[in-house]
Design goal:
3 helices, alpha+beta, 104 residues, four-stranded antiparallel β-sheet, homodimer
Chain lengths: 104, 104
Amino acid sequence: MSYIAVIFTSTRRDSDHEEYATWSHLMSEMVREIPGFLDSDSFRDPETREGVTIAYFENEEAVKTWREVSEHQEAQQLGREKFYGEYRVRIARVEREYHWERPD
Amino acid sequence: MSYIAVIFTSTRRDSDHEEYATWSHLMSEMVREIPGFLDSDSFRDPETREGVTIAYFENEEAVKTWREVSEHQEAQQLGREKFYGEYRVRIARVEREYHWERPD
């Protein structure tokens, strides 16, 4: 069964560090509560200020639910007003995957 | 038109730093030469040693071409022998995207 990856790449402005950290933490906590949320990974390079968050959801309905959460909409608004110089959201369907783990 | 995102998440072992840097750089240069390569983003958290590389390709044929490049196969072999404790490769089809940039 396929699932959805929401790939959010962004460039942070050099400003609003505490407020950004607060909202970033809140969003990472809230997305976990969405029915159909599977997992997420988040990285940012402190030098280039570029980063990516990839959130995985079971289906489009879960993506829609997350998009419509009011605190998430507020965070997106703050993102445009303050936090980001640029961002891109890609909605992708994971068609296959391979996992490898070191045998111990 | 849709395109492909190859999402490679991995955990580095705390070893082989120079050899890893050499191969990582070589791969980031070589993938750019693949016909149908579009773009890539790469991040790693030095504390958790977790990282992600997302490479975007026009189509599955480009993904296949990259997978079969001999130096890439050698890098994958070294990845399992030395560099990584764990990795996951997800092949996803980007179905839609949104871009926002701060108006100047």
